[in-house]
């Protein structure tokens, strides 16, 4: 594979150390005793909080981990995590173009040695960024072999290194998952495949992924059904596929309890892409599925903001829908381009969106044991090593600003007062009876006749928007 040559990102005017892709990757010992610390990002310092007046792109302007907001430290509200696949397996390739990135720790192979190098780079990145959680797909951290046994052996070897690095750094997985969408065997789905053999293979893979997540101390385990759906109902028995998926989840719950894994099971809704219709379309659809099959107490939801917009909702809507159903477990913090119709997985940069999301998270009392995972990737054209840090710093600062803004709105109370006044008629004795379930139609008709034509008050939407914008 030819190595591309990329220009150096000049930031000397901002007094930031120069970092390039020309760094020579370390030669790491084959054993687990050395993490090759400080070799992958030699020009990047530990990322520190410098405040809003800082012009340093390698510093936090709004995220101050130890600062207390509404009774909790910022790091406890936000519980940040880095996605291994986008950060250390992202190539910049897209449906129309070849990879654009040539990282100094990457040689393009998928060998065990290369997997170990990526894992070491991952933990150095996490330490310098100041994040103590990470997320992974099984097939992205370890290469697939010719058999299940060989694949599991590869995974065990990489997991042993990850365990060693975790012990050195006190970093743990926010969640793990099985990658059940890339290999051709999953063309018809995994748990919903029309082929029994694929269903069996998927169960074996998920079983191992749950074991690995448990062994590494993962706080959650995610199910993302990228192929769990259909392209056409003409050749699909949708009812049978949904039943199969429910049986699959039941078996996963039983195994989780058997091995003593106390982490939360999460389902990640997405409407389509790659299938025309995926069975976990949005938060409401997923909640309905869990209720129908008696799984509502065994799962929560991992809301991804870009998936929300693809389903025709805002991220705030999906987070709030999950919250009021008691299902808000985790948030994949990313966003999409409104002019691009697919899952672009960009870092969240919209402070207004982050503020609305944080209003729901605060109402939820936080996300623990979930958190905010940066399921986000650099743009195809961003090819310098420091871009990896800058993208995460900007995303973390955006959510930190959202948290600060949400605190301001809550403490000032103007928005909540608008909402309270809007529904004040239901604070009456009759309103209380209705909300308690005691309002039969005969009573409601009688009261309607007594009241006559109702007087309808203004919704004050523009005032609410003015107050919200003033907090930004």
TrEMBL record:
E.C. numbers: 5.3.1.5
Signal peptide: 1-22
Biological processes annotated in GO: D-xylose metabolic process
PROSITE patterns from the UniProt entry: XYLOSE_ISOMERASE
InterPro entries registered for this protein in UniProt: Xyl_isomerase-like_sf (IPR036237), Xylose_isom_bac (IPR013452), Xylose_isomerase (IPR001998)
Molecular function GO terms recorded: metal ion binding; xylose isomerase activity
PANTHER family assigned: PTHR48408, XYLOSE ISOMERASE (PTHR48408:SF1)
Name of protein: Xylose isomerase
Organism: Genlisea aurea
């Amino acid at each position: 594979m030819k190595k591309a040559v990329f220009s150096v990102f000049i930031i000397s005017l901002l007094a930031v150390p120069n970092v390039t892709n020309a760094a020579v990757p370390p030669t790491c010992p084959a054993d687990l005793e050395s993490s090759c610390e400080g070799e992958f990002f030699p020009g990047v310092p530990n990322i520190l909080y410098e405040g809003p007046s800082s012009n340093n792109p390698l510093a936090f302007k709004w995220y101050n981990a130890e600062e207390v907001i509404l009774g909790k430290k910022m790091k406890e509200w936000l519980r940040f995590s880095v996605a291994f696949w986008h950060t250390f397996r992202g190539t910049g390739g897209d449906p129309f173009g070849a990879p654009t990135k040539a990282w100094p720790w990457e040689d393009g192979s998928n060998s065990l040695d290369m997997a170990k190098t990526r894992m070491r780079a991952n933990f150095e990145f996490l330490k310098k960024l100041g994040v103590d959680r990470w997320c992974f797909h099984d097939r992205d951290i370890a290469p697939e072999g010719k058999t299940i046994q060989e694949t599991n052996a590869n995974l065990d070897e990489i997991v042993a290194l990850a365990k060693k690095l975790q012990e050195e750094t006190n970093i743990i997985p926010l969640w793990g998952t099985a990658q059940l969408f890339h290999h051709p065997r999953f063309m018809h789905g995994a748990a919903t495949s029309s082929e029994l053999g694929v269903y069996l293979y998927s169960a074996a893979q998920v079983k191992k992924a749950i074991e690995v997540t448990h062994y590494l101390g993962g706080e959650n385990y995610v199910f993302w059904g990228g192929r769990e759906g259909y392209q056409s109902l003409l050749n699909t028995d949708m009812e049978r596929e949904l039943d199969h998926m429910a049986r699959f989840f039941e078996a996963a719950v039983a195994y989780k309890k058997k091995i003593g894994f106390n982490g939360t099971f999460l389902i990640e809704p997405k409407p389509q892409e790659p299938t025309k219709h995926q069975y976990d379309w949005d938060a409401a659809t997923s909640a309905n599925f869990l209720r129908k099959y008696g799984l509502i107490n065994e799962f929560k939801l991992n809301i991804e903001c870009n998936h929300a917009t693809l389903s025709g909702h805002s991220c705030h809507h999906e987070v709030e829908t999950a919250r009021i159903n008691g299902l808000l477990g985790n948030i994949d913090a990313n966003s999409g381009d409104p002019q691009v119709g697919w899952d672009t997985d960009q870092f969240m940069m919209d402070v207004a969106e982050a503020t609305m999301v944080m209003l729901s998270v605060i109402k939820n009392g936080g996300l623990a044991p979930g958190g905010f995972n940066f399921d986000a990737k650099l743009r195809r054209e961003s090819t310098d090593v420091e871009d990896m840090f800058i993208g995460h710093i900007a995303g973390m600062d955006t959510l930190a600003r959202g948290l600060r803004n949400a605190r301001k709105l809550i403490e000032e109370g103007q928005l909540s007062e608008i909402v309270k006044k809007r529904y004040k008629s239901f604070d009456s004795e009759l309103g209380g009876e209705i909300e308690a379930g005691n309002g039969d139609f005969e009573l409601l008709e009688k009261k309607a006749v007594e009241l006559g034509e109702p007087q309808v008050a203004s919704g004050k939407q523009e005032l609410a928007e003015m107050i919200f914008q003033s907090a930004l």
